[in-house]
Amino acid sequence: MERQIRVRGAVLAASALLAAAGCSGTGGPWGGDPEASAPSSSGPAAPGGDAKPVGGDVLPGMVSAAVARTRLAALKVAAPGTMAGYSRAKFTHWAEQGNKCDTREVVLKRDGTGVIQDGECRAVSGTWKSLYDGSTVTDASKMDIDHIVPLAEGWRSGAAAWDAAKRKAFANDLTHPQLLSVTAAANRSKGDQSPDLWQPPDPASWCQYGRAWTTVKSTYGLTVTEAEKKMLTKMLDGCAA
């Protein structure tokens, strides 16, 4: 009986500490993602928080294909906006995340296997599997951090009207499926193109890509074009039941 009381007391104390630390919440600052799994936080704090992928996905904050279809249907359809006034500098990145780390290094650590960082938080070794083309890379310098919804695409679909803080959160979002380590070749092939104009070379990645793109656009209230919506529908329809 005495041992049971001690164990129960320890559990209650641990629960109180977690509640005080705010570990029961989830979602980002611009709408959140209530239907996604609530991954645990780790690593340096970031705009929008930091999260780990769950359930076999390589990105955090993912929703199911069914939820993504519902969100896609709710997105406003509009023609692309003008690029007038656009500059990557208006989307502050990569933001400092503490412990000498910036957003790029946090994502490389999250997405890699056996990643070792030096005293400046730079990845000096590890292994990365690039979702877009299926390539395996062991040199961090050959990896880019892709914005699933590119900054320029965000600008054309609503971010031109945002303030600096929201653009910074969008460019450094570690909670929603907006940042991913991929090969430099795949990232530069994509550029700022939407899914109707560019699809990952490996079709096996289309389900995750479509869910991620839709989740980010929904979270930030961005618009889609008719052609973009059609391709996203095709990607989501290819997800396993």
Helix tally equals: 8
**Cα radius of gyration in angstroms:** 19 Å
Biggest sheet overview: 3 strands, antiparallel
Q: How many strand segments?
A: 7
Order of helices and strands: HHEEHEEEEHHEHHH
Strand order of the largest sheet: 3-4-5
Question: What characteristic shape results from the CA principal axes?
Answer: globular
Instruction: Let me know the average pLDDT.
Output: 83
Q: What is the end-to-end distance?
A: 48 Å
Low-confidence stretches: 1-49
Q: Which structural class should the secondary elements be placed in?
A: alpha+beta
User: Oligomeric status of the shown chains?
Assistant: single chain
Domains, number:
1
Helix content bin: 25-40%
Q: Beta-sheet strand percentage? A: 5-15%
